Amino acid sequence: MVEPPNAKEFLETILSNEQARPPGSEQAAIDNQTMSALLNLLGKKHTIVILHQFATGAGPLRFSELEEVVDIAPNTLSNRLEELTEVGLLTRKAYNEIPPRVEYNATEKAQDLAPVFWYLGVWTERHDLEPVSAADRRR
Amino acid sequence: MVEPPNAKEFLETILSNEQARPPGSEQAAIDNQTMSALLNLLGKKHTIVILHQFATGAGPLRFSELEEVVDIAPNTLSNRLEELTEVGLLTRKAYNEIPPRVEYNATEKAQDLAPVFWYLGVWTERHDLEPVSAADRRR
DNA sequence: CTGAATCCGGTCCGATACTG
DNA sequence: CAGTATCGGACCGGATTCAG
């Protein structure tokens, strides 16, 4: 089973938060815009995998650690980390040491995405993505 | 509030599903492979947005409907729909009519991803993705 | 008329080499 | 160690074309 971070408490909190937005409100429009931006961000290559690392494992991650785990070119990793930092999902702290050290941390905003990854793990326990016969593609 | 598909029942089901996999088992390795394939699929451009459409709205969607909502080139949409159909997340039904009509439906496997999008909606009610000041990117 | 195949131009990504 | 520079290739967007 995938590690539930603190899933139970968290989900109970969510479920008790009924009817937060009037469906046609101006705030709802902003939410849609945020959703669009979020999906657009998550749609970029490797972004989900990177966030998955931060959401599941606790503590800071270094550039080289991510490079090993994620299987990504350094320039692309650099771009992704910058993008995620810009929108406040990660923080970056550079130490003036030799050899240099840079630590990336998930913000609370990013940690609030943890249930997504946790649930994706649940999903993979119940399903696969094996190619389907041509007959089963119709219905 | 974003529409919870049947959030309460769903989450209770999930939360009661403790310790389904022995962590080092062969099945766990397959899960990881599935997860990798899933993230790789979701990482492709527009895939998440497309699945979002199927997961939130009920009922079949037509090619042209998706084309309007998703803002995607027709060739790319065609590719995505084929990929999603191949792995069993969508089914495709073509009617022999004039004008022609093709309907895509989410399979149960795809519907089981709905909680992901539902929760992303919850997340957007609590957070945004506005650019963060340079000072706040450090910590 | 809709869904999709084809061709081309642009953007994004990967691999390697290199720098502070 | 943590990136940046450069280049080649894969992927995506747009327009056109085609089949049913």
From TrEMBL, chains A, B:
InterPro entries: HTH_HxlR, WH-like_DNA-bd_sf, WH_DNA-bd_sf
Keyword DNA-binding: yes
The HTH hxlR-type domain, residue ranges: 33-132
UniProt KW keywords: DNA-binding, Plasmid, Transcription, Transcription regulation
Presence of the UniProt keyword DNA-binding in the record: yes
Family matches, as Pfam families: HxlR (PF01638)
A GO molecular-function annotation: DNA binding
PANTHER family the UniProt entry points to: TRANSCRIPTIONAL REGULATOR, MARR FAMILY, TRANSCRIPTIONAL REGULATORY PROTEIN
Protein name, per record: Helix-turn-helix transcriptional regulator
